[in-house]
Amino acid sequence: MPTKLLFRDDAYLTTARVHVTGVQERGIEFDQTIFYPQGGGQVGDTGALVRANGERIAVTDTRKGDTLDSVLHVVQAGAGVPAIGEEVTLEVDWSRRYALMRLHTALHVMSCVVVAPVTGGNIAPDKARLDFDIDMSLLDAARIERETNALIGRGVATETVWITDSEMDARPELVKTMSVQPPRGAGRVRLLRIPGIDLQPCGGTHVANIAEIGGIRVLKIRSEGRRNRRVEIALATSGPEE
Questions:
Q1: How far is CA 23 from each of CA 37, 78, 221, 239, rounded to the nearest angstrom?
Q2: Number of domains into which the chain is organized
Q3: Do 187 and 131 belong together in one domain?
Q4: What CATH number is given to the structural domain containing 50?
Q5: Are the C-beta atoms of 186 and 166 separated by less than 8 Å?
Q6: Quick one: pLDDT at residue 183?
């Protein structure tokens, strides 16, 4: 059963009242969720579900289900399991999620400094990286850090834009990532626009204004094979809402 993805409309939601729609060995499904399931290089959210009697059950991971927009919430082993139809409260681990939002948005900005096909990427709470198909000699850590932070310093608000599958097919230049293609089948594709900086398909969670990133540090640049040059970054500051 499809899950209403509340984080798509508001990535800043930290709690939500939801109903259990499915219970299986792999996880619990709800009618709606604020938890982002692992995908597009971004790890799944963690947090807790709280039952009406006050019992707290740790959510240790969030994954995609077997059907489009179905989400499985992985709970702590041995924990009690709510019944189908039961109403519970979801609480996302906000400090972890906010770090992911800031780092994910930072990668969008950095992809406009390192102009090359993206061959892979990953966003974890403590660091993130993009892999590029580019000559190693063209990657300079100090320049990447300086120019990315200069763009972040513009303080531009981000925007979510939806286009149809056919519009997406007509604009292949929007897709920077060679390893992950925009999801098809729902009739429309979600884009993240940073006016004057970037526009590309992305289903992840992002900050409302790139100023919230606060700045990045380039941790390392290394070769990861014939066509992969990895640029790894971390946040330079703890951020205004942590």
A1: 16, 14, 43, 37
A2: 2
A3: yes
A4: 2.40.30.130
A5: no
A6: 59
Q: Among all chains, which residue has been given the structure tokens 């707290």?
A: 56
- d(CA 119, CA 131) in angstroms, rounded, equals 5
For residues 106 and 130, give the distance between their C-alpha atoms in angstroms, rounded to a whole number: 11
Answer with the one of 92, 122, 155 that is the final residue of a domain: 92
Structure tokens that stand for 40 in this block: 């597009």
| Model pTM above 0.85 | yes
Amino acid at 180: V
> pLDDT tens, 228-240?
999 999 999 866 5
Q: Which 8-state DSSP code applies to residue 25?
A: T
Burial 39-59 (b: 16+ CB within 10 A, else e): ebbbbbbbbbbbeeeeeebeb
Please name the residue that has the structure tokens 């240790």: 60
Give the domain extent around 21.
Answer: 4-92
- Return the closest-CA partner of residue 198 out of 170, 177, 227, 228: 177
